[in-house]
C-alpha cells in the first residue's frame, strides 16, 4: 500500500514539474512573441519614417532625380527591416552572428553573379546624380542616339529620330562620351557650297549673308560670317557660319540649305559636279624618254 501511495505521489510530482516547465516555457515564449511583435511594429514604423525622411532630404537638392531619391529611400527602409528581423530572431535564441555571416556570404555570391546588373545600377546612380542628360533631351554617343524618355536604375529608354524605341543599359551610356544636343540654347552651323571658278565670288558671299539676314531664326549676335573655305579641284567652296536657337537649329539648317540653292540658281551661279580633265597622246606622238633613274636601274633577274 505504501508503495502505491509513493508511486502516485511521484506521478503527481512529475506532473507538477512538467506543468511548471510548460508554464515557464509558455511565459518565456509569450514574452518573446510579444517582444517580437512589438519589435516588428516599431521597426516597420521606423523604417517608413526613415524612408520618407531620406527621400525628402534628397528631393531638396535640385540636381537629384526622383528615381534616385526613391532608390536610396528604399535601401534605407529595407536596411532597417533587416536589422529588425535579426533582432526578432535574437528574441528566440537564434545565433545572429551565424545569420550575419550567412547573409554576408549570400551577398557576395549574389554580387558576383549579378556583376553586370550591379554595374548598370552604379552607372544609373551616377547618371541620375551628375545629370548629363534629362528626359526630353536629344543625345548621341556615336552608337546610340535618340530623345531620352526615361532614366532608370538599370537602363535608359530613348526614342530615335524615326520614332523607334531603344533601351540602352546604363553602363553603355556612362563609359562613353555623350553629346547632348538639347542642353545648349544656341548652336552654330557652317553652310558650305561649292561654286564654279568662273562665277562671281563676291555675289555668292553677298547672297549667303542676305539669306542669313532675312531668316528670323538666324541670330544677329554673333553676326553671320561668310568666307572662302577652300579652293577645290572642281569648285571654290564658299562657307557661312551662323548661330540659331537650339530648339529650331535643325529646321533652320534645312531651310538655309534649300534657300541657298534656289538663290544661286536664280543668280546664275553654278554648283559644279566634280570634274576630271583627261588628255591622250596621238599615234605620232613620241613615247616618254626614260629618266636617268630608270636607265640606271639594273634589270631584274628572272
Automatic annotation (TrEMBL):
<dbReference type="Pfam" id="PF21088">
    <property type="entry name" value="MS_channel_1st"/>
</dbReference>
<dbReference type="InterPro" id="IPR049142">
    <property type="entry name" value="MS_channel_1st"/>
</dbReference>
<feature type="transmembrane region" description="Helical">
    <location>
        <begin position="99"/>
        <end position="130"/>
    </location>
</feature>
<keyword id="KW-1003">Cell membrane</keyword>
<comment type="subunit">
    <text>Homoheptamer.</text>
</comment>
<dbReference type="InterPro" id="IPR011066">
    <property type="entry name" value="MscS_channel_C_sf"/>
</dbReference>
<keyword id="KW-0813">Transport</keyword>
<keyword id="KW-1133">Transmembrane helix</keyword>
<feature type="transmembrane region" description="Helical">
    <location>
        <begin position="71"/>
        <end position="93"/>
    </location>
</feature>
<dbReference type="Pfam" id="PF21082">
    <property type="entry name" value="MS_channel_3rd"/>
</dbReference>
<dbReference type="InterPro" id="IPR011014">
    <property type="entry name" value="MscS_channel_TM-2"/>
</dbReference>
<dbReference type="InterPro" id="IPR049278">
    <property type="entry name" value="MS_channel_C"/>
</dbReference>
<dbReference type="InterPro" id="IPR006685">
    <property type="entry name" value="MscS_channel_2nd"/>
</dbReference>
<comment type="similarity">
    <text>Belongs to the MscS (TC 1.A.23) family.</text>
</comment>
<feature type="compositionally biased region" description="Basic and acidic residues">
    <location>
        <begin position="283"/>
        <end position="302"/>
    </location>
</feature>
<dbReference type="InterPro" id="IPR045275">
    <property type="entry name" value="MscS_archaea/bacteria_type"/>
</dbReference>
<keyword id="KW-0812">Transmembrane</keyword>
<dbReference type="InterPro" id="IPR008910">
    <property type="entry name" value="MSC_TM_helix"/>
</dbReference>
<keyword id="KW-0406">Ion transport</keyword>
<dbReference type="InterPro" id="IPR010920">
    <property type="entry name" value="LSM_dom_sf"/>
</dbReference>
<feature type="domain" description="Mechanosensitive ion channel MscS C-terminal">
    <location>
        <begin position="190"/>
        <end position="271"/>
    </location>
</feature>
<feature type="domain" description="Mechanosensitive ion channel transmembrane helices 2/3">
    <location>
        <begin position="74"/>
        <end position="115"/>
    </location>
</feature>
<feature type="domain" description="Mechanosensitive ion channel MscS">
    <location>
        <begin position="117"/>
        <end position="183"/>
    </location>
</feature>
<keyword id="KW-0997">Cell inner membrane</keyword>
<dbReference type="InterPro" id="IPR023408">
    <property type="entry name" value="MscS_beta-dom_sf"/>
</dbReference>
<dbReference type="Pfam" id="PF05552">
    <property type="entry name" value="MS_channel_1st_1"/>
</dbReference>
<protein>
    <recommendedName>
        <fullName>Small-conductance mechanosensitive channel</fullName>
    </recommendedName>
</protein>
<dbReference type="Pfam" id="PF00924">
    <property type="entry name" value="MS_channel_2nd"/>
</dbReference>
<comment type="function">
    <text>Mechanosensitive channel that participates in the regulation of osmotic pressure changes within the cell, opening in response to stretch forces in the membrane lipid bilayer, without the need for other proteins. Contributes to normal resistance to hypoosmotic shock. Forms an ion channel of 1.0 nanosiemens conductance with a slight preference for anions.</text>
</comment>
<keyword id="KW-0472">Membrane</keyword>
<feature type="region of interest" description="Disordered">
    <location>
        <begin position="282"/>
        <end position="302"/>
    </location>
</feature>
<feature type="transmembrane region" description="Helical">
    <location>
        <begin position="21"/>
        <end position="50"/>
    </location>
</feature>
<keyword id="KW-0407">Ion channel</keyword>
Amino acid at each position: 500500500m505504501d508503495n502505491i501511495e509513493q508511486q502516485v505521489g511521484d506521478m503527481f510530482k512529475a506532473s507538477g514539474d512538467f506543468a511548471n516547465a510548460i508554464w515557464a516555457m509558455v511565459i518565456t515564449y509569450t514574452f518573446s512573441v510579444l517582444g517580437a511583435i512589438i519589435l516588428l511594429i516599431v521597426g516597420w514604423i521606423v523604417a517608413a519614417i526613415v524612408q520618407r525622411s531620406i527621400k525628402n532630404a534628397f528631393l531638396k537638392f535640385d540636381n537629384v532625380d526622383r528615381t534616385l531619391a526613391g532608390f536610396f529611400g528604399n535601401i534605407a527602409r529595407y536596411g532597417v527591416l533587416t536589422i529588425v528581423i535579426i533582432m526578432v530572431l535574437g528574441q528566440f535564441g537564434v545565433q545572429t552572428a551565424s545569420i550575419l555571416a550567412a547573409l554576408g556570404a549570400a551577398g557576395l555570391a549574389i554580387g558576383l553573379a549579378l556583376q553586370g546588373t550591379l554595374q548598370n545600377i552604379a552607372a544609373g546612380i551616377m547618371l541620375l546624380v551628375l545629370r548629363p542628360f534629362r528626359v526630353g533631351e536629344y543625345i548621341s554617343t556615336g552608337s546610340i542616339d535618340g530623345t531620352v524618355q526615361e532614366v532608370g536604375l538599370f537602363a535608359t529608354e530613348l526614342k530615335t529620330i524615326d520614332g523607334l524605341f531603344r533601351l540602352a543599359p546604363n553602363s553603355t551610356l556612362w563609359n562613353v562620351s555623350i553629346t547632348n544636343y538639347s542642353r545648349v540654347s544656341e548652336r552654330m552651323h557652317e553652310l558650305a557650297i561649292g561654286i564654279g571658278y568662273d562665277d562671281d565670288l563676291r555675289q555668292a558671299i553677298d547672297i549667303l549673308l542676305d539669306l542669313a539676314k532675312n531668316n528670323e531664326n538666324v541670330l544677329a549676335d554673333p553676326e553671320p560670317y561668310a568666307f572662302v573655305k577652300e579652293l577645290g579641284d572642281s569648285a571654290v567652296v564658299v562657307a557661312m557660319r551662323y548661330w540659331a536657337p537650339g530648339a529650331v537649329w535643325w529646321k533652320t539648317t534645312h531651310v538655309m540649305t534649300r534657300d541657298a540653292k534656289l538663290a544661286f540658281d536664280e543668280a546664275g551661279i553654278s554648283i559644279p559636279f566634280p570634274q576630271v580633265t583627261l588628255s591622250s597622246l596621238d599615234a605620232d606622238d613620241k613615247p616618254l624618254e626614260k629618266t636617268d633613274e630608270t636607265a640606271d636601274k639594273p634589270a631584274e633577274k628572272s
